[in-house]
Structure formats: C-alpha cells, structure tokens
C-alpha cells in the first residue's frame, strides 16, 4: 500500500507544483487568511481550459489543502520536499519507467520509515479466532477487573513516563520551501 500512496504522492506533487507561488497571505483580520490565486496558477501553467484541474482547485479538499499547507512557517514533510526539490527529477523520469518505479519505491520506503520510526519494535498480531469458536461451551467467563490493581498499574506507568523522554519525535517547524515558480512548468 505504501507504493500506491507513493504514486499518489508523486501525482499530487506534479499536479500542484508551484502552488506556493500563488498563495497570498491576507492580514486584514487578527488571524491571517491564506488565499490561493487560482487564475494565476492555471494561467501560468497554460491550463485555463483544463476542466479537471479547475474542478480540483474549486473543491473543498483543495481548500482544506491550502488552509493546512498554506502557512509559510510550519512542519515540513515529504510532499513539501517533492514539490520544492524534485521537480527536475520527476520531469526526467516521465519517459523512463524503470527510473520512475525506482523513485516510487524510494518514496514508499520513506513513507514506511515515517510511519514506523522504530522498526525493531515488533507488534504482535492477535490471531483470528477459529470458525465456530464462539459456540464452544468451555469458554470461561471474562474475569472481574480489580480496580485497585488497575489504578496501581496506571500510577506506575505515569511515574515511568514522567522520567522518560517523549515517545514521539518533536516536529520542528521551519520555513516551507517555495520551490520553483509556476511559470517553469
């Protein structure tokens, strides 16, 4: 599934390359508003008559995309890197399927690493119950939970977690790279 996600990541990176150059920050209100200049984006790419891209840009999903990815100072991710720095690579791979597949696999590997930062921690899967297991008579009733013991375990866990470093990595905010201007495409 990571390779399929990587293909869509490349597709959207190609589709929206240069979108940052068409963002406008309006500071009329206490909270700044980010506006996307659709006509400039379509005009500079020569796609004014493209119904598909026009409908994508007019959709609610794209409005959410702009509000989420529009701020100039936020946590950057793989998509931002693709849009800003991989323009030439994606263009060069258009006529070369083996290179494209290699890049998709690299992206899929990065997606996997982002979701599984600690690969040495294995998650044990719960086995699926056999057919008819719910009909067995010898199944014991679920035991009563000892509330005192649960509280003790919670307190122990909290005490351990307060002294330990945070489990999640802290995302550092930075200035989002703008990438090449829209007219380049």
TrEMBL record:
InterPro entries per UniProt: dDENN_dom (IPR005112), DENN_Domain_GEFs (IPR051696), Tripartite_DENN (IPR037516)
GO biological process terms, alphabetically, are:
regulation of Rab protein signal transduction
Coiled coil regions, renumbered to chain: none
Q: Name one GO molecular function term.
A: guanyl-nucleotide exchange factor activity
Matching SMART domains: dDENN
Origin superkingdom:
Eukaryota
Q: One GO term of the cellular component aspect? A: cytoplasmic vesicle
Where the record annotates domain UDENN, the positions are 1-76
Q: What PANTHER family does this protein's entry cite?
A: C-MYC PROMOTER-BINDING PROTEIN, DENN DOMAIN-CONTAINING PROTEIN 4
Protein name (database record): MTMRD protein
Q: Which organism is it from?
A: Smutsornis africanus (Double-banded courser)
Query: What taxonomic ancestry is recorded?
Result: Eukaryota, Metazoa, Chordata, Craniata, Vertebrata
């Amino acid at each position: 599934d990571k390779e399929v996600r990587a293909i869509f990541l490349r597709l959207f990176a190609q589709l929206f390359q240069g979108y940052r150059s068409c963002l406008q920050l309006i500071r009329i209100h206490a909270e700044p508003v980010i506006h996307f200049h659709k006509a400039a984006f379509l005009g500079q790419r020569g796609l004014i008559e493209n119904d598909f891209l026009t409908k994508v840009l007019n959709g609610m999903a794209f409005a959410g995309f702009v509000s989420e990815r529009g701020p100039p100072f936020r946590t950057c991710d793989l998509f931002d890197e693709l849009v800003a720095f991989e323009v030439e690579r994606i263009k060069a791979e258009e006529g070369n399927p083996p290179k494209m597949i290699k890049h998709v696999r690299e992206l899929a590997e990065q997606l996997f690493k982002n979701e599984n930062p600690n690969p040495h921690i294995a998650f044990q899967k719960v086995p699926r119950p056999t057919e008819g297991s719910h009909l067995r008579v010898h199944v014991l009733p679920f035991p009563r939970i000892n509330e005192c013991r649960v509280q003790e375990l919670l307190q122990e866990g909290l005490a351990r977690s307060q002294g330990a470093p945070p489990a999640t990595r802290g995302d550092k905010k930075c200035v989002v790279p703008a990438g090449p201007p829209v007219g380049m495409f």
